[in-house]
Structures are given as structure tokens and as C-alpha cells.
């Protein structure tokens, strides 16, 4: 009949075996794995860069982009980049990030508070779960 003896569950006591077509069995396993992978949620991270002296209009423009990203289900990584001697304005950068977070608290929650990494201060915002 050209069928194979395939061990289905080797850890069970006694081990479970079936008489099936092995190639078909492998094909169906691959198909199940592909289906599971397709259903898993892919996390998208969008990045928005500010400066310590970003003006109100630019701030609002980037805020609208962040709102759109969060509504689409992506995480938003907001960073303040300090060029040259701007590094002395760390407090202004942190204020910018906290202002950004409070403006987005309706649709997103802060995943990590502002922290310095080299010349940039980074904060992550994740979308809130829809009820």
C-alpha cells in the first residue's frame, strides 16, 4: 500500500504511531506551521525623532503621525537627538518626551520612560488595547 509507520507522539506512554503516507504527513505539518506563523502578530516599530528645541508646529505635526501609527497598531519609538553642544539641554529633551507622552495617553501607554543612550534620549509608546 506504500504507507509508512510514523511515530506521532514519542513522549506518550506507550508511544503513539500511525500508518500513513510520511510525505503527506510532513506536508501537512509544514502547512500548519505556516498557518500559525501567519496568524501571529508582527510588532511594527515606527520611529519619530525630535530635537531639544523642536517648535510647537513641528511637535504637533509629529504628534499626528504618532497618533496614526498607534491607531494602526504599531509601537512608536520617540527620540530626542542631541547634536553637538545641544547635549547640555537634556532637561528640555526630557520635557519634550514627557509632553509627547501626555498628549498620546488617550491612545497609547508609555512602555519605557525617557532614558539616555549615547547622544539620544529614547522613549517607547505602545498602543492601548481596544475594548
- Point out poorly predicted stretches: none
Structural class: alpha+beta
Strand order of the largest sheet: 3-4-6-5
**What gap, in angstroms, lies between the N and C termini?**
54 Å
Strand content: 25-35%
Order of helices and strands: EEHEHEHEE
Instruction: Tell me the number of structural domains.
Output: 2
What is the CATH topology assignment of the largest domain? Translation Initiation Factor IF3
The CATH class of the largest domain is Alpha Beta
Q: Give the second-level CATH assignment, the architecture of the largest domain.
A: 2-Layer Sandwich
Average pLDDT rating: 88
- Sheet having the most strands: 4 strands, mixed
Tell the overall outline: elongated
Instruction: Work out the helix count.
Output: 3
Helix content: 25-40%
Radius of gyration, in angstroms, nearest whole number: 25 Å
CATH superfamily of the largest domain: Translation initiation factor 3 (IF-3), C-terminal domain
> Quick one: how many beta strands?
6
